[in-house]
Design a protein that fits this description.
Blueprint: E1 2-8, H1 12-23, E2 28-31, E3 43-45, E4 51-53, E5 60-62, H2 65-71, E6 77-79, E7 84-88, E8 91-95, H3 99-106, H4 113-123, H5 133-158, H6 167-171, E9 188-192, H7 196-203, E10 209-212, E11 225-231, H8 235-238, E12 248-258, E13 268-271, E14 280-283, H9 285-288, E15 295-303, E16 310-311, H10 315-328, E17 334-336, H11 348-361
Parallel strand pairs: 1-2, 1-11, 2-10, 7-13, 11-17
Antiparallel strand pairs: 3-4, 5-9, 6-9, 7-8, 12-15, 12-16, 13-14, 14-15
Helix pairs in contact: 1-11
């Protein structure tokens, strides 16, 4: 059979592309190296009946009504606002840093945004220009908050000091003066009612879409007839690593099931000190709203081994990526889109929005 599009990867980038093009009458073949659809958003029930995210917590949030409206065609939603606590020497503090964090840590009694803003102004160290992730945080809140909440956590997560990483890494986390302890402040904060995998199944349930799992696209590409390709995999792999391998951080998960209806005071704890090797614990029932006598949690250990999770943004890696990007622009009828093929950290809604815009033009 001849296909209009060969799509490599069944995550958000590949699946939304497939759905949009199938609606336009295009014949699609999705080739996915894993044994499941939904990419890193894949969720499943563990042996204890708890719906877990196999690749760590994926929290849907967006300010885009277009993205929310689009995904609502494939799922009902459960209202959910994510909360995270930082574990610092056994004490728990709201993250992102806010008025409550400052009051508890420094034994203050601030009651207004201005008081907290003045406090930050008094402790910040002006850095100009902002060159890295250390600069962006110290410039906002000074060295002590940086050392306590950012430095060690970032080093564990990336195996690099914050001063070796782009400002975008730590700059993604806001610093607040109010008592808002939600991790995100987006207009739309929900979880798919029946999980991400069910949402993807509905998205890809179209007669024009065929899916091939457990398959490396390179093993079948010479046997498939297609007009165009959408590639969502690692861009360096596409070009056989001709300019070198782009580094990624991965995560090793350790799973535990505990006889308790609820274990944590928030969905996730970030361990910001040096004592623990893991960076985060997450309790999945708090996201799904399930009721059961046990609860399942994951412990996250960052590593360089395993699935490509997080592109490592710094100047050296950007130079390598730009060589691959230049090569990709020479190719006709091949579109590179998504976190791995663009070597860029995207939130889920950002990927969906980008694909909706791209396929509309196509």
């Amino acid at each position: 059979m001849k296909y209009d599009y060969l799509i490599v990867g069944a995550g958000f980038a590949g699946s939304v592309s497939a759905e949009r093009l199938a609606q336009k009458g295009k014949k699609i073949l999705i080739v996915e190296k894993r044994n499941h659809i939904a990419g890193n958003a894949f969720d499943e029930f563990d042996e204890f009946g708890i719906l877990i995210h196999k690749y760590g917590p994926h929290i849907f949030h967006t300010n885009s009504s277009e993205v929310f409206k689009y995904l609502s065609k494939f799922t009902e939603w459960r209202k959910y606002e994510h909360k995270v606590l930082a574990n610092l020497d056994g004490e728990l503090y709201p993250i992102p840093i806010n008025r409550t964090t400052v009051n508890k840590l420094y034994n203050k009694s601030f009651t207004s945004d201005k008081e907290v803003s003045d406090f930050y102004e008094g402790v910040r160290e002006k850095r100009n220009p902002i060159m890295n992730s250390e600069d962006i945080i110290v410039n906002q809140v000074g060295s002590d908050l940086y050392e306590k909440f950012f430095k060690n956590y970032t080093k564990k997560q990336w195996a690099l000091d914050p001063n070796q990483l782009s400002p975008s890494v730590c700059g993604r986390i806001p610093v607040r003066t109010n008592t808002d302890d939600r991790y995100f402040t987006d207009k739309y904060q929900f979880m798919p009612k029946d999980g991400y995998t069910k949402m993807f199944e509905k998205m890809l349930n179209h007669p024009n879409i065929e899916i091939m799992l457990n398959t490396d696209y390179k093993s079948i590409i010479n046997e498939i007839e297609f007009e165009k390709m959408i590639y969502t995999g690692p861009i360096d792999y596409f070009f056989d690593y001709k300019f070198g391998k782009l580094p990624y951080r991965s995560i090793k998960f350790e799973w535990k099931n505990v006889k308790a209806t609820k274990l944590l005071k928030a969905t996730s704890y970030n361990f910001v000190g040096q004592k623990e090797q893991y960076t985060r614990i997450t309790e999945y029932k708090q996201m799904t709203g399930q009721i059961s006598k046990t609860t399942s949690v994951s412990y996250e250990f960052p590593t360089f081994v395993g699935e490509e999770f997080y592109p490592i943004p710094n100047d050296e890696n950007d130079l390598i990526y730009k060589k691959y990007k230049n090569e990709s622009e020479k190719l006709k009828n091949i579109l590179f889109v998504g976190r791995l093929s663009e070597y860029k950290y995207y939130n889920m809604d950002q990927v969906v929005g980008r694909v909706l815009q791209t396929t509309q033009k196509m």
